[in-house]
Amino acid sequence: MRLVILGGGESGVGTAILGKKKGYDVFVSDFGKIKGNYKEVLIINEIAWEEEKHTEDLILNADVVMKSPGIPDKSPMIKKLLAKGVSVLSEIEFAAPFTDATIIGITGSNGKTTTTMLTHHLLKSAGLNVGLGGNIGKSFAWQVAENNYDSYVLELSSFQLDGIINFKPHIAIITNISPDHLDRYDYKYENYIDSKFRITMNQTEEDYLIYDADDEAITEWFKTHTTKAKLIPFSLTKTFSEGAYIKNNKMEISINQEEFTMDTAHIALEGKHNMKNAMAATSVAKLMQIRKATIRESLSNFQGVEHRLEKVLKIQNVQYINDSKATNVNATFFALDSMNTPTVWIVGGVDKGNDYNELMSLVREKVKAIICLGVDNKKIIDVFGNVVDMMIEVDNMNDAVRMAQRLSEKGDTVLLSPACASFDLFENYEDRGNQFKQAVKNL
User: How far, in Å, CA of 170 to CA of 152, rounded?
Assistant: First the structure.
């Protein structure tokens, strides 16, 4: 069986290692450059590869193709493969049949990384032999090849879910849905929503779907669709006989006739959106029969996720916060919503069809100055130009941070929450966040 892998990044190389181990004839092809460390792994494992080109003869003879999430279905090579009837899968679909582990799959427009990390933290703290992968860390396929975990917590993007056929998590979570990546879905929001719900398409009555019952897109979907999975909703405003909710500053969870309560003041994560992430993760812990005391302890000592509302430093009584992971408007909405002080907001980058008007009331209420950090800031200036007193454009992180220091006074917060992708000025959102942290430390 010939396995061709398009894309020589984390998921591609992980799939190559698993494929080789399972006896496939493996070939990796990347239209760009393959990073040195990945190249080394391919060479050591004697896996054939090419970079900066796709040689059709070596690709179209595949029995199965794994494409990296970054490659759109519309690309010419994918079209040719599909026309030939070659099955094109995501890494998750390829790897899942090779493990008997219990899979917890987490998707959503925002909050999925925090929920994934928190869920993993809850299970690991309870002594479970559990792997963490998908969209973060070591690729799922790589771990299936090299480790023997009893369960996996996987963060799954819509792109990864687009490439599944039989994949089914035992427990699925949809944290929320808001418009994102619409350029990949013919600018149709409903296509993106359907893509997220693929996480539950193969689930049976034995499986569980945990979801945000306050989310408009999710509740609308349920009006015209069904899933076989047992439903476990969570909400900040509603209460359930089966599900999770907040009442009188307590998180209350009722699953399979078992109750769990915890004072929200003792949960390490702050902000309303993080209460939702905590409810989702705790619901998984309850389904996995983790002891209540262990859950409480883990929720109170969880450190949070780098680049997500990460407190960097307080300088002259101004708090600097790195929320570089906020690559869409909805994520930035959560960030601004959790600000309790006058805020100098650093925003901008590559816009994915953003509607900034959703942020208007929060900006009026909380933001004193805006620093635009992007190559093209026209949309941001058009929307907020008359709303804040100060609007400044910069083209590098050092200037952004120095400017923010000048515009802030004691008791303020400087928030990097770009609401955009980072590829105009940075390698990725991590690079953007790290540059911010370094610039703050240099003040």
Answer: 10
**By C-alpha distance, which of 140, 189, 142 is closest to 164?**
140
At residue 411, the pLDDT reads 96
In our burial notation (b when 16+ CB lie closer than 10 A, e otherwise), range 228-261 reads ebbbbbbbeeeebeebbbbeeeebbbbbeeeebe
Domains of the chain: 2-89 (3.40.50.720), 94-301 (3.40.1190.10), 310-441 (3.90.190.20)
Dihedral-angle region of residue 424 (phi above 0 means left; psi in -120 to 50 means alpha; beta otherwise): alpha
Q: What is the DSSP string of 242-276?
A: SEEEEETTEEEEEETTEEEEEEGGG-SS-SHHHHH
Distances (CA, A) of 33 to 4, 52, 54: 17, 6, 12
pTM, two decimals, is 0.81
Separation CA 28–CA 34 (nearest Å):
10
218 and 241 Cβ atoms separated by less than 8 Å: no
CA separation (Å) from 180 to 65, 217, 307, 360?
Answer: 26, 13, 19, 19
Beta pairing class for 343-347 and 367-373: parallel
- pLDDT band, residue 181 (cuts 50/70/90): low
Dihedral sign, Cα of residue 269, residue 176, residue 320, residue 411 = negative
Burial 366-377 (b: 16+ CB within 10 A, else e): bbbbbbbbbeeb
**Per-residue b or e along 48-76, where b marks 16 or more CB atoms closer than 10 Å to that residue's CB:** ebbeeebeeeebbebebbbbbbebeeeee
Torsion sign across C-alpha atoms 209, 213, 217, 220: positive
Give the tokens for residue 330.
């909805």
Measure the CA–CA gap between 304 and 296, rounded to whole angstroms: 16
Residue 127, number of CB atoms within 10 A of its CB: 10
Q: If residue 119 lies in a helix (H) or strand (E), which one and from where to where? A: helix 112-125
The SS3 of residue 170 is coil
The 10s digit of each residue's pLDDT in 254-301 is 999 899 999 999 998 888 889 999 999 999 999 999 999 999 999 999
Residue 107 and residue 51 in contact, taking contact as beta carbons nearer than 8 Å: no
